[in-house]
Specification:
This protein starts with 20 loop residues before the first strand and ends in a 27-residue tail after the last helix. The chain is globular. It contains seven helices and eight strands; from the N terminus they run E-E-E-E-H-H-E-E-E-H-E-H-H-H-H. It has a domain at about 20-170. The longest helix is centred in the last third of the chain and has 10 residues, at about 200-210. It is of the alpha+beta class and about 250 residues long.
Length: about 250
């Protein structure tokens, strides 16, 4: 039985049963990269499908990794590269959250006991590229996407700087900054806005606040964005300091 507090960030009444990509200016190199978890954004409870068949409702979250390799910076040489991965929150030894907490450890080398403790944990992510070569993605967790680091090496990885990421944010306590950590189409439009109880939620208020900003009326609306001639979501000026979060889906061709 896992000792992880699955109820942290998950809506009450939902029984938990047994791939994201960021468009950075610089594409992270293929292979393993040391990283720290800087944000976990809970996107609510949505229906899960496999091969077109419903598998019930499942909580989902976006994990935001800050890469910590020597060359893992944007063109300014200061801003760290960031990759995201959206996962279903399930129980079981082979579940994504268990694979994550087994790979990414706290400073004392122990496993996180809840989502909040995962923030700042250190490990390694396996970077793969989309077929077009324009996007760097985190491989599926069950295919080596996350792994641990030797204790001596883990201690050498720089910590998160103050103000990096948004920490652990529950769906019911959503913030504009947390929404901005997610990809506007694949995370916000396809998951967050489809979650149970979205209408009237804090998440909806945050999204509407973003849409009220000048030039962002089509935020998290891919059809309207394409019709307006914008092929990619446009980040706010504040978000430009942090790479705008990526698309979803391992193996997708962009």
């Amino acid at each position: 039985m896992s000792d992880f507090a699955y109820d942290d960030g998950v809506e009450e009444g939902v029984e938990i049963v047994g791939g994201g990509k960021v468009k950075n200016e610089v594409v992270a190199a293929l292979g393993p990269h040391p990283a720290r978890i800087r944000s976990i954004v809970h996107c609510g409870v949505t229906e899960a499908f496999y091969l077109g068949e419903s598998k019930g409702k499942t909580p989902k979250a976006v994990i935001v990794f800050e890469l910590k390799g020597d060359g893992d910076f944007e063109t300014d040489g200061v801003t760290p590269l960031v990759l995201t991965k959206d996962i279903e929150i399930k129980k079981g030894e082979k579940a994504n959250i268990e694979l994550l907490r087994s790979a990414f450890k706290k400073a004392d080398g122990t496993k996180a006991a809840n989502f909040a403790e995962l923030i700042g944990c250190v490990g390694s992510v396996e970077v793969i590229h989309s077929k077009c070569g324009k996007y760097a993605n985190v491989a599926a967790f069950n295919k080596g996407g996350v792994s641990g680091l030797a204790a001596m090496f883990a201690k050498m990885i720089p910590p998160l700087e103050a103000g990096s990421g948004v920490g652990n944010v529950k769906y019911s306590e959503m913030t504009v900054a947390a929404v901005e950590e997610c990809h506007a189409w694949n995370h916000v439009e396809d998951i967050m806005m489809q979650a149970d109880g979205y209408e009237g939620s804090q998440a909806q208020k945050c999204i509407e606040e973003i849409r009220a900003q000048e030039g962002r009326e089509n935020f998290a609306n891919r059809e309207a964005s394409k019709k307006s001639g914008k092929s990619k979501p446009t980040p706010t000026d504040e978000a430009k300091a942090t790479p705008a979060p990526q698309m979803v889906d391992d193996g997708a061709e962009y």
